[in-house]
Amino acid sequence: MIKTVGLTKKYGDMFAINDINLELEQGDLFGFIGPNGAGKTTTMRIIATLLEPTQGEAYVCGHSIYNDAKEIRGLVGYMPDFFGVYDDMKVIEYLEFFAAAYRIKGQKRRDLCNEMLDIVDLDFKRDAFANTLSRGQTQRLGLARVLLHDPQVLLLDEPLSGLDPRARIEMRNLLRRLGELGKTIVVSSHILPELADICNKVGIIDRGVMNVNASVSEVMKQVRQKVVLNIRVKSDHDKAAKFLEGLAEVDNVNMGDQAIVVALKDDAEDYSDLPGQLFEAGFKVTFFGEEEVNLESAFMTLTKGVGAKI
Length: 310
Description:
Layout: E1 2-11, E2 14-24, E3 29-33, H1 40-47, E4 55-60, E5 63-64, H2 69-75, E6 76-79, H3 91-101, H4 106-119, H5 135-147, E7 153-157, H6 165-180, E8 184-189, E9 201-206, E10 209-215, H7 216-223, E11 228-233, H8 237-245, E12 250-255, E13 260-264, H9 274-280, E14 285-290, H10 295-302
Parallel strand pairs: 3-8, 3-9, 6-7, 7-8
Antiparallel strand pairs: 1-2, 1-4, 4-5, 9-10, 11-13, 11-14, 12-13
């Protein structure tokens, strides 16, 4: 659905993006993560045929950005991080205006606009003026607009930026629903942990360089050097910690605020028998789980010192 090969954009001697290689299939929900100015918007604008690269190539559904810009624009829905709305237009009028621009006419246009309002949960604001909406509601209206022509690919630039916690949750749920419809979605963000639970793939970009391009599980695997377990026992915490220190697969043990923190040795991948060993030793285990690594930790680890060469 989306493929970029050596995509590069320079302004004078400065690289906005440098040698970006990306390949996404239908139904992928790709989290494009990086700080402000990292090159996320530049990449998305090139894919949307709104900006020409200095070198490299990009394809959308097999169409080249150089030769098939018109076809690509019919396949892509691009939502920038900030966009204006017309002060004198109601929400439903705003959508009908853009639907008319796509040459959708008559009852079909009215039905489609109503359907989009229902999808983004804005039907209750259909007769409100667009400029009176909250930031979260405006983002949902923008998403409804880019869905009008039923694009196969969605490019969403910072759709979570500036939203309150409730609006962020609602937007993430909406993105999940769109992913379930089989659309290929690229969503950029500098709010790092919030994409982990909705994306199946993630790219981490810093200073124009794509440092990581993999599935979320693979990214976590790259970051984690050791398996770390959090274990709670009903009593005798110090004795349990000493018992764990004596196990062959354990590297070190520390007492956390609420749990015993156990780091396993590098070659210890199977720890399924640990709860049984604790039980046989007379300890009652109340909690046993692997410590998670979130995307924020992944970002800080994987981008450390990378990009400074540019």
